[in-house]
Amino acid sequence: MQEKEVKYKPVSKADYEREFKQINLSFEKPSVDTCYTCNTLHMQIKVATEAENMDAKNEAENNLKEHQERADLAYQ
Ligand SMILES: [Zn+2]
């Protein structure tokens, strides 16, 4: 099953791409505990927090929580 990216609303594409570049610079290799979806959602939370967009922040946090709960189930 594929997750629909349209479910997540980036604050803006420019913010998103800027954050993504910063994250790529600050981490040489990805953690084994995180996947692309986790990284994307963490980034959206950070961007939304900086933009003081609480709706976007809450939505991204909920999406991350749901995603992690699904991920936990997958390992059982
Ligand atoms: Zn994940």
Question: What can be said about this structure in brief?
Answer:
This protein has 76 residues and is mostly helical. Helix content is 67%, strand content 0%. The protein has one domain.
Descriptive notes:
Residues 56-76 are annotated as: Disordered. The chain has 76 residues and is mainly alpha-helical. The protein has one domain (12-75). Helix content is 67%, strand content 0%. It contains three helices and no strands. The protein has helices spanning 13-26, 36-50, 54-75. α1 crosses α2 (36-50). The radius of gyration is 13 Å and the shape is globular. The protein starts with 12 loop residues before the first helix and ends with a helix. 8% of the residues are buried. The structure holds zinc ion. Residues 34-35, 37-38, 67, 71 line the site of zinc ion.
